[in-house]
Amino acid sequence: MLAAVCTLHLAVLGCLLGTACSIEVITSKELEAINGTDTRLKCTFSSSAPVGDNVIIAWMFRPISGGDDQTIFYYHKNPYPPTDGHFQGRAVWDGNIMRNDASIVIRNIQSTDNGTYLCQVKNPPDVHVEMGEIQVRVVNKAKLSEIFVLALVIGVGSAVIILIVLAFVLCRYYRIKKIHRSTPVSVLECSEKLNEKPGDMKEVYA
């Protein structure tokens, strides 16, 4: 019994020193968000300790202009969204602790939300040193690739040229076909006149 207690104490001490237990927070490094949309900030974690009610999650915001980090969301057994400040009513819980998901959503994201979002996860006795960081850049609209636009212009231009050439060729084809339909009658009449004998010609003139 005493040996078991000693072993447990050593394990907890090892976790506190960061040698036996560990927790890892995973986020995307950069995120481009469209102005006015609801943007999900994904944060997942792995822990060597069982995940339960001891999990503590804190989201912080570091403005692009600089300054102190601001806590914008807190979770411990229940989500606690901000009750005042810039993110009031806009930072909402979108995670699932049992699936190691600590994500949140920023509703109606604005250009003033540009900056770094920090996701911190604690799962005692696991400790965690580095926080997950997401550099968010808010843009007015999704940008089309310049190569895509150029290819689109070239494709449309080529299609128009092909249609014009095709129409011209078809017009000439039907025009020539119409001429050929009327030509055999005239040639036949000319051939009969040329093949008439001189005597016949005299009779005609008489």
From TrEMBL:
Residues of the signal peptide: 1-22
This protein's record includes keyword Nuclease: no
Membrane-related topology note: Single-pass type I membrane protein
Protein's cellular compartments: Cell membrane
UniProt keyword terms in alphabetical order: Disulfide bond, Glycoprotein, Immunoglobulin domain, Membrane, Signal, Transmembrane, Transmembrane helix
Classification via PANTHER family: MYELIN P0 RELATED, MYELIN PROTEIN ZERO-LIKE PROTEIN 2
Main location class: membrane
Biological process terms in GO annotation: cell-cell adhesion
Taxonomic classification: Eukaryota, Metazoa, Chordata, Craniata, Vertebrata
Protein name, entry field: Myelin protein P0
Regions that span the bilayer: 147-171
Gene (UniProt): mpzl2
Pfam families referenced in this protein's UniProt entry, alphabetically: V-set (PF07686)
PROSITE patterns: IG_LIKE (PS50835)
Family per record: Belongs to the myelin P0 protein family.
SMART domains (UniProt xref): IG, IGv
Function: Creation of an extracellular membrane face which guides the wrapping process and ultimately compacts adjacent lamellae.
GO cellular component, as recorded: plasma membrane
